[in-house]
Amino acid sequence: MINTVREVNFDGLVGLTHNYAGLAHGNVASMSHGGRVSNPREGALQGLAKMKSLMDAGYAQGVLPPQQRPDLGALRALGFSGTDGEILRHAASEAPQLLRAVCSASSMWTANAASVTPSVDAPDRRVHVTPANLQSSFHRFLEPPTTRRVLQAIFRADAHFAHHPALPGTPAFSDEGAANHTRLCSDYGEPGVHLFVYGRQAFGGQREPQRYPARQTLEASQAVARQHGLSAAQTVFAQQHPDAIDAGVFHNDVIAVGNGPVLLYHEMAFMDEKGTLEELRAKLSTPLIPVRVPLAAVSLEDAVASYLFNSQLLSNPDGSMTLVVPGECQEREAVWRTLQDFILAGNNPIGEVIVKDVKQSMRNGGGPACLRLRVALSETEQAALSGRVLLNDELYADLTAWVSRHYRDRLAADDLADPQLANESLTALDELTKLLKIGAVYPFQLG
User: Fold this and answer.
1) Which strands form 262-266's sheet, in the order they lie side by side?
2) What DSSP string describes 77-117?
3) Which residue among 57, 197, 440, 445 has the highest number of C-beta atoms inside a 10 angstrom radius?
4) Which of 251, 266, 267, 329 is catalytic?
5) CA 180 to CA 374: how far, in whole Å?
6) pLDDT range class, residue 296, cuts 50, 70, 90
């Protein structure tokens, strides 16, 4: 009996406190939209619409819940006291940036939730999961404990899934998850090679960016590979180009995307482009298919503004691939021309481009690829998942109704101090965990 392996994209639901606080230093879109009024309901429905369209096209689609926000526990730990309303009021007047941070809905970008190794690559033949520590920014550093509980609740069966602790939350082991990790292979069920991309060495002397911080360290990537039992023959560690980071490419998935044997990347993606490709070719069991977009065709500014490379590259049954891009790609002439005349017309498996509207996410600096965590699962492993998290028509209808019941259609910075917003969030999340059948995962549910 053939145990078919498929890639499941687990998208993060946009949270109830989705707002534009401009918290992410080095993320140009996030910083440039800081202070604008957001629409959480529209954001959640846009994300669900993307999931539904991919499900309808035959791709396996999963759902991950948002985090508990505002994180009043974090404010209490930082010295605020009193009732929930008093804490929110004091934080708004004394430390508004902290209030914005503990209300961030950044967990929607589940590409940063964890790093995942499929069972076919692991020595014990289990799927291995390490939640990212996200220590480079306070608002994201709050996420890992709940992320781990959510992933453990869904990937619960010990016979099939192995969970590792997040790396130490220090600058030396700064880990941003799958946004800097790409698995290349001939087929999802065949052994693959793991490309880990880092921005700096904590204990080294390589050239680093000067304008914006490098969020992933080599030492973190190496530690995750060790946790998952990956050998030197299965891994390639490549430095992201510092100039790209300084242009706003805060993660590798903003300038490169891989799927199967295809690596779609910008000329400025890697510090050592030639060496990276040579090592991938040497270690892959199938010919690498590099699709290189030159700087002359797409500038770094256009790459960051359009999120051309923060797209989903998906495999089709006939061997072709589909690229799911944000609508902003149509707004940049050079990008759209490159998609039509170079990528689609090139000698590669990419035969279709689908455009999706995810503007609420894009304005905070996350495209289609940011919104999903890729997990290659066999039929047996899919059957072993706990909860009601694989999208179908019934779950989609339930989730859209849930969003319509609970989400606001307008959220400004001043609204974050509203105690009613906190109450609305807890009520909605409690209902969501029952809808998804994942049990108690939030701090307020655990007492």
Assistant:
1) 256-259, 262-266, 289-293
2) HTT--SSHHHHHHHHHHH-HHHHHHHT--GGG-GGGTEEEE
3) 197
4) 251
5) 12
6) very high
Burial of 62 (0-12, 13-18, 19+ CB in 10 A): buried
- Write out pLDDT tens, residues 356-371: 888 777 876 778 889 9
Per annotation, catalytic residue among 103, 185, 370, 381: 370
| Contact indicator for 134, 24 with CB cutoff of 8 Å | no
Between CA 443 and CA 146 the distance in angstroms is 8
Residue 176 a catalytic site member: yes
Instruction: Answer yes or no: are the C-beta atoms of 142 and 74 closer than 8 Å.
Output: yes
- Identify whether the C-beta of residue 201 lies closer than 8 Å to the C-beta of residue 240: no
Query: Which token pair is 209?
Result: 């960016």
**Tokens standing for 303?**
């790459």
Question: Where do we find the tokens 């500038």?
Answer: 299
CA dist list (Å): 380 to 5, 57, 71, 319:
9, 22, 37, 23
DSSP for 298-328, please give it.
S-HHHHHHHTTTSSEEEE-TTS-EEEEEETH
User: Among 443, 435, 399, which residue's Cα sits nearest to residue 52?
Assistant: 399
Rounded to an integer, what distance in angstroms lies between the CA atom of residue 403 and that of residue 413?
21
Alpha-carbon Rg for the chain, nearest whole angstrom, is: 21
3-class DSSP assignment, residue 375:
strand
Would you give the distance in Å from CA 351 to the centre of its chain?
24
Average pLDDT rounded to a whole number, residues 220-235 = 98
Query: Do the Cβ atoms of 300 and 247 come closer than 8 Å?
Result: yes
From residue 11, how far is each of 52, 112, 123 by CA, in Å? 11, 11, 28
Indicate the residue type of 200: R
- Catalytic, 370? Answer yes
DSSP conformational letter for 15: P
Catalytic residue of the set 143, 176, 219, 381: 176
Strand boundaries in 153-210, DSSP class E: 161-163, 181-184, 193-198
Which is nearest to 372 in space by CA: 249, 263, 253?
A: 253
- Give the closest residue to 197 by CA, choosing from 295, 115, 261: 115
Instruction: Give 373-426 pLDDT, tens digit per residue.
Output: 999 999 999 999 999 999 999 999 999 999 999 999 999 999 999 999 999 999
Pair 21, 104: CB distance under 8 Å? yes
